[in-house]
Amino acid sequence: MVVGILGGGQLARMLALAGHPLGLTFVTLEPAGDACSAAVSEQIQGAYDDESQLLALAKIADVVTFEFENIPAHSVALLSDKVPCYPPAEALAVAQDRLNEKQMFNRLNIATASHQSVNSFSELKQAINELGYPAVLKTRRDGYDGKGQAVLRSETDLEKGWQAVAENPSIVEVLIPFDREVSIIAARSRSGEIACYPLTENRHQEGVLRTSIVRPDDPLQGLAERYINKLLDEMSYVGVLALELFQVGDQLLANECAPRVHNSGHWTQDGAVCCQFENHLRAICDFPLGSTRPAGQIAMLNLIGKLPDSKAVLAQPDAHLHLYDKAPRSGRKLGHINLCSADKQHFEAQLEALQALF
Predict the structure, then answer these.
(1) pTM over 0.85
(2) What is the pLDDT of residues 122-147, one digit of tens each?
(3) Which of 179, 245, 247, 347 is surrounded by the most beta carbons within 10 Å?
(4) Which domains does the chain possess?
C-alpha cells in the first residue's frame, strides 16, 4: 500500500519510518527541494495547491494524509474526490481557524477561556473592555509555535499587539493563570475504533514546546478522554488528533487541537507499545489500532536551534536520540530525545543530565 503525505518535514519522515515495517511505502508532496523526509520516501516537488501535482499524488497513493495543519483545506477536499484522504478536509478547516475551533469546543460543552473575535482595532478595544487584562491576542489563522500572537497586559500593549497580528482577523482571550499545560493524543480508525494515550505535561519556552513528561494515571485523564472523544465523533475523524489543554484546579480548558501527529506525542516512539505514528497509519489504512500503554518513566526533550553532542546524549543509557537531518537554524526543531526508564530515581538523574546539555 502506498501512503501519500502532504508535507515533507520531520513528521512525514517519522510517519514513513514507522510505516516501513508494516510494508507501507510513501510519497510526499512538498515544495522544498531539501525535504528531510526524502531519505525515506519518494517526493513530488510542488506547491500544496498545485492541482496537477495533487492529481499526480492521487494517481500514486492508495490513501493520503497530511503532516501539518497549514495545508490548504481545499487541496485535501480535491484529493478526497480521487482517493481516500484522512483526516477529513472538514476537520482540517476547523482546526485552521481559531474562532471556528473555539466555537466547536463550546458547542460540545468543552470548556475554554472566555474569548471574542476581533476584526479591527476598535473591536479589539471593545473586547478588552469586556474581557479585561491580561489577555492574549491571536490570529485566527496560520499561527504556530508562539507566532501570530501577543500578550496584552495594559492599554499600552494594544497598538503593538494589533501590529503583531498584522491587523488580521483574530481572537482575544483571557490569559489563563493555569497550573499546568497538558495534552492528550488519540487515534480513531476508519472503523471507529478509538485509542487514547496518557496525558503529557508540557513545558514551553517562547511559545515553543521544550519538554513533555508522561503522566500515567493522571486524575484528569478521564476528563481529557471525554473531551477528545467528543471531538473525534463530531468531526467523523480518522487518524491521530492532539488536544492541548490548560489545567486550572480540577478543570481542563481547551486551548487548541491539532489534526495530525503531534510533538507532545514523540515520546511514544520509545515509550509506548505502539507509537502515535504507527497508530496514525493503522487508523487511515483501517488496520486494528495498537496498544497505547506506556512503559515506565518517560520524557521527551526537543532539540531547538542547535544540537548537543550525540555521544553525551547517548552516554545516558535510557536516552534515545532522534535527529531530523535538518540544517541548524535559530528556532528550528532539529530533533528530540526520548528518555524511558523503569526506575524513577534513575529517570530523574538522567533527565537532569540531559537538560544540562542545552
Answers:
(1) yes
(2) 999 999 999 999 999 999 998 666 67
(3) 245
(4) 2-85 (3.40.50.20), 114-174 (3.30.1490.20), 180-355 (3.30.470.20)
